[in-house]
Amino acid sequence: MTGQRTISVLGATGSIGASTLDLVRRNPDAFRVVALTANAQAAELAALAREFRAEVAVVADEARLPELREHLAGSGVEAAGGPTALVEAAARGADITVAAIVGCAGLAPTMAAIEQGKVIALANKEALVSAGEVMTAAVARTGATLLPVDSEHNAIFQCLQGNDAANVRWITLTASGGPFRDWPAERLALATPAEAVKHPNWSMGAKISVDSATMMNKGLEFIEAFHLFPVGVERLRIIVHPQSIVHSMVEYRDGSTLAQLGPSDMRVPIASALAWPARMDTPCAPLDLAAIGELTFRAPDETRFPATRLAREAVTAGGSAPAVLNAANEIAVAAFLAGQIAFTDIAENAARVLDSMNDFSAPGSLDDVILVDRAARARTRETMELAH
Ligand code: NAD
Ligand code: MG
Question: Which of 2, 110, 157, 256 gives 20 to 30 Å between its CA and that of 370?
């Protein structure tokens, strides 16, 4: 990498935020931090903002602003709070913005960053799932560079370099299968939040860990891939790969399959995006395939884990269906984590909400997507009360 670049991290206090800032910390000359944001963790955010000498720190939850101000007193870091401040911080136009807020809550700030036409390192898959065409159109219009941080999509992005997408036969997303991969169907209904967030290979935030357990994470990633790599839904496949070493693959028409391999550490795909098109060091141990020994693969089981089927149906229905699926899932995952519904109710509720909506007309703007998201959340809450 050459020269110093400015960077903003939306969702700085999360798992992706921490991995990103770890790389920034190890490369103090390569980056200057503009904005760091969090939802409500004012003390934690203030400590990061001081350490990285950020220009501005923003809490989305405005009630936490006094606390943030107190922690930042005398630091020279600006403090701000609330959804508008979050969007304004994202619009400061850092050379690279890491979009690492969880859920559709990250959509407006991510779109604000895209409007600046710079580099967006996208971890926040829910934003792309919900806003699909609206977001990709904004990227095309502004000339922004959207670099996927999600490990599968980062792998695919790397495997596509130097190739013509017209020659792609298959894009295959790998899935670990999550902690319940080998559980019998009848046991799944009894799975607890503590069991669901204990991922076998990756250390991640609670929401994506539950999504990995239901396989909705792979469903959302299927939709994410549909938008990032426009080869058509019929060329996208999913395969279960328990070791999470092959992060995804691209097969070409001549029978060549290119795969990207690496440790199960998000610092690898984040580093790939931060340095792109160059490379940077990470502290990750080199891949020791002899020690790993075996890489295995199997077909996904959509009877026990229907989420990937729901995602395929939503992306095929098009329009607002993926945004509805995402919103229903976000509400159901939160209810599951709060102990209000069973594990298997997550996908069941999402299916019911999708079935109950018969207008999937395409949202034409960010505001439209936000309206669809709100309506689907309300519908999911109603559906869950009816069912329980
Ligand atoms: P996390 O829960 O650890 O962190 C989420 C961050 O978003 C935190 O900084 C939190 O304060 C902020 N946030 C939460 N709700 C918010 C709101 N309403 N408004 C503003 N900010 C809010 O999540 P994570 O695991 O770091 O995941 C972040 C995103 O990256 C998700 O979309 C996830 O799917 C994606 N992702 C994560 C991983 C991983 O390994 N963790 C891998 C691939 C993709
Ligand atoms: Mg992933």
Answer: 157
For ligand 1, pick from 128, 152, 154, 204 the residue to mutate: most ligand atoms within 8 Å of CB. 204
Q: Is 152 in the pocket of ligand 1 (CB under 6 A)?
A: no
Could you tell me if residue 68 is inside a domain?
yes
C-alpha 202/C-alpha 4 separation (Å) is 31
DSSP state of 122: E
Asked whether the beta carbons of 56 and 93 are under 8 A apart, the reply is no
45, part of any domain: yes
Q: Which domain holds residue 113?
A: 5-148
In a domain, 61, yes or no: yes
Residue 35 lies in a domain: yes
C-alpha–C-alpha distance, residues 220 and 201, integer Å: 19
CA-nearest residue for atom 43, ligand 1, is 150
129-162 pLDDT, tens digit each: 999 999 999 999 999 999 999 999 999 999 999 9
Q: Give the model's confidence band at 386: pLDDT under 50 very low, under 70 low, under 90 confident, else very high.
A: low
Shortest-distance ligand to the CA of residue 176: 2
Question: In angstroms, what is the span from residue 149 Cα to ligand 2's centroid?
Answer: 8
Condensed to tens digits (0 to 9), the pLDDT of residues 4-41 reads: 999 999 999 999 999 999 999 999 999 999 999 999 99
Is the minimum distance from the CB of 172 to ligand 1 under 6 angstroms? Answer: no
Ligand 1 lined by 17 (C-beta under 6 Å): yes
Question: Which CATH number fits the domain that encloses residue 31?
Answer: 3.40.50.720
Domains held by the chain: number: 1
Confidence of residue 337 (pLDDT cuts 50, 70, 90): very high
Q: Is the pLDDT of residue 74 over 80?
A: yes
Ligand 1, from 15, 37, 202, 228: best to mutate by most atoms within 8 Å of Cβ?
15
Summarised one tens digit per residue, pLDDT across range 266-290 is 999 999 999 999 999 999 999 999 9
Identity of the amino acid at 257: T
* Nearest Cα to Cα of residue 10 among 77, 108, 76: 108
Q: How confident is the model at residue 3 (pLDDT cuts 50, 70, 90)?
A: confident
State which of 10, 13, 16 you would mutate to test the pocket of ligand 1, scoring each by most atoms of that ligand within 8 A of its C-beta: 16
| CA 353 – CA 345 distance, rounded (Å) | 12
CA-nearest of 74, 58, 69 to 12 is: 58
Structure tokens at 247: 């992060």
